[in-house]
């Protein structure tokens, strides 16, 4: 990681959808200032194909991303901001993250699109909504930091 960029970690339960999309979006939207990574409390097997697809629609490639556990980063990297994107991660993550400045722990509750039902297009619409919600949250957050 570059010395001048600040590390942001996105956390969710499985690290297969929301946190992966947030990582890709922040690296795209704020990569000049931040390096985003993501991890999960109980990492899944693979990044959800629809998460990859809806970011590809925006010109971002997260197809090489793999779910990771929080131990990959805990105490090993100087994290400036920690953002949980699901309630389970917010409740399960360590209350104290070594080196994390006071006030830099954030929670953005986002729907889990993996439960979407219906046609392929209806399921994709649920993933696009989460992507667009994340884009708006990241845009607002970047204005404040």
Automatic annotation (TrEMBL):
Question: Domain Phosphotyrosine protein phosphatase I spans what residues?
Answer: 6-144
Q: Which organism is it from?
A: Desulfobotulus pelophilus
Q: Which domain of life is it from?
A: Bacteria
Q: Which UniProt keywords apply?
A: Arsenical resistance
Enumerate the InterPro entries for this protein. Ptyr_pPase (IPR023485), Ptyr_pPase_sf (IPR036196)
Any Pfam family matching the protein: LMWPc
Gene3D superfamilies per record: 3.40.50.2300
Q: What is this protein called?
A: Arsenate reductase ArsC
């Amino acid at each position: 990681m570059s010395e001048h960029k600040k590390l942001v970690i996105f956390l969710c339960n499985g690290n297969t959808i929301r946190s992966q999309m947030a990582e890709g979006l922040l690296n795209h939207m704020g990569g000049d200032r931040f390096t985003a990574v993501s991890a999960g409390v109980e990492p899944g097997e693979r990044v959800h194909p629809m998460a990859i697809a809806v970011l590809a629609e925006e010109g971002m490639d997260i197809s090489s991303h793999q779910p990771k556990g929080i131990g990959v980063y805990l105490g090993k990297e100087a994290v400036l901001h920690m953002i949980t994107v699901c309630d389970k991660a917010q409740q399960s993550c360590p209350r104290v993250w070594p080196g994390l400045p006071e006030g830099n722990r954030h929670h953005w509750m986002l729907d889990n699109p993996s439960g979407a039902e219906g046609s392929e297009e209806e399921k994709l619409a649920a993933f696009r909504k989460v992507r667009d919600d994340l884009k708006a949250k990241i845009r607002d957050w970047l204005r404040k930091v």
